[in-house]
Amino acid sequence: MTDDARTDQTPKSYRPIDSKGFRDFIARGWGPVDRTVTVPDGLAEAAAEHRRKLAAALPGRRIAIAAGRAPVRSNDTDYLFRADSDFVWLTGCQAEGSVLVLSGDGDATLYLRETAGPDEADFFANARDGELWIGPVPGLKDWSDALQIACRPIEELPAAVRGAVPFILSVPGVEPLLDALVRTSPTDGNSLRQTLAELRRIKDDWELDQLREAVAASVQAFGDVASELPEAIRGGGERWLQGTFDRRARTAGNGVGYASIVAAGNHAPVLHWVRNDGPVNEGDVILLDAGVETRTLYTADVTRTFPATGEYTAAQRQVHDLVHKAQLASLDAVQVGAPYRAFQYEALRVLAEGLRDWGLLDVSLDELLGPDGQQHRRYIVCGTGHYIGLDVHDCDASRPEAYFAGTIEAGMALAVEPGLYFHPNDETVPPELRGIGIRIEDNVVVHSDRLEILTEDLPITTDGLEQWTRSQLARK
Fold first, then answer.
1. Do 232 and 178 have their domain in common?
2. Domain match, 195 and 215 both
3. Residue 189: what pLDDT?
4. Which terminus of the chain has a lower count of CB atoms within 10 Å, N or C?
5. Domain tally for the chain?
6. CA 388 → CA 133, 297, 391, 396, distances in Å?
7. 120-141 in b/e burial notation, b at 16+ Cβ within 10 A?
8. Distance between CA 68 and CA 178 in Å, rounded?
9. φ, ψ for residue 116 (rounded to 5)?
C-alpha cells in the first residue's frame, strides 16, 4: 500500500464551530432556563448600606473594585472561584470577573459578562464559561433583580472608569482588565483596602446573623468529626476527619472558610498543620481548628482539642486546664472600651504564670511579661485572637491604631484563642508534656452591655469535652 493510499484512509476530524450545519442546529430548539439568583433576605439591603458607608468615608471619589478570577491550579484547570471579600461586602455578588463602580456621588453600577446565547460561540465553545459546559449562568437582569443594583455589560467598563472625574480608587492585582484601564489614573489601592477594612470592623445585624449561621454549622461539623474518631483510629487518620468536616461545610455552606487544621498526637503543637495526613491513635488528643463558610462567605473560626477515645491523660488534662484558665481570663477582658491588646495580654499572663509555677521558666513574672523577657512565647509564639468576618483573619489592612493599638467597640466579632504548644523534640519540657498541643478558640460578638459567645454550645473544660466526645462517639 502506498503512502498516499494510507493518507486517504485516515479519518478526518472537523471542528463543530466551523460547520454551518452544527451552528444552525445548535442555535435553536432550547427551552427556557432558570437563571434566578437566590440570595438570603437582607443581603441586598446590607450591601447597599455598606456602599453608603464607603461613599461617606471617601466623599467625591470614584471607586472601582473587582470580584477577581479563579487562580489556575494546573494547566487548564482552576481552583474553585471565591470572590474578593471587599467586593462581596459592597455588592453581595459572587460573579467571577465582575467589577463594581461607585460614582463620585455614590451611585453604583455592577459590570458583568452577559450570558452567551445558543447563537453565540461562547455558548458551546467556551469550556470555562459557556452554559453548555458549566450550566445556567445568571445574566445582567438576573443579578440586578436579586441585588437591586444597576447592571451593565462588562464591555462598557472602559467608559465607566474614564471621563469627567479625574481620579479613581481601585485595588490593583485583582482584575487585569481593570488594572489596564486605570493604569494611567492616580490610584491608591492600599488606601481603599484600609478604608474598607476599618469599615468592616463593626458588623451590622445582618452580618452577625451570617456569623451565627457559620458557627452553628461549624459546631455541628465538630460533632460529626468526633463521631468518626473510631474510623480514623482504624486507619482513616487525619484525612478521614478532615473529609468529615469538609463534607458538612460543603453541605451546610459554601465550604470551609480556610484550610482546616486536623492535628492528632504529635502534630497538635504544629500551629498550621494543614497537611492532615497523619494517623490517629488511641491516647491522642485531636486539635481541630476549622470553620464553615456560609454561602454569603462569612466564616467561623473554631478550635477545640479533645481526646480521641473520650478521656485525657493526666498530662493532657494539666495543659488543657491551664489553657482553659487563660481562655476565661481572656474572655473577661473583652469589653467595650478596653484596649484591644488587653484580652491577649490576660491570656499570656495566665499562661506565663502557669508555666513558671510548673518550673518550666525560672525568671520572675515581671521579667516574663516585660519587653526583654517573653520567654514563655516559646510555647505560644502565635497571637491569641483576631477579627472574624468575611475573612478568617478579617480587616487585616486596618491601621494599627484601628486594630492592635485600638480599643474594642460594640459590633466587633472576634476569635479568642489561647493555647500551649510543646513540640515532641522540645527538650526544655519534661517528657510527659512533649508532643502535647492544646488550643481553645471561641467566636464572640461584643455588645454594649455583654459578650455573646457564639460557640457556647461547644464545651471548653476538660470534663465537658470528655463528656461531649463520648456523647458524639455514641452516635455511631
1. no
2. no
3. 63
4. N
5. 2
6. 36, 11, 6, 10
7. eebbbeeeeebbeeeeebbbbe
8. 10
9. -80, 130
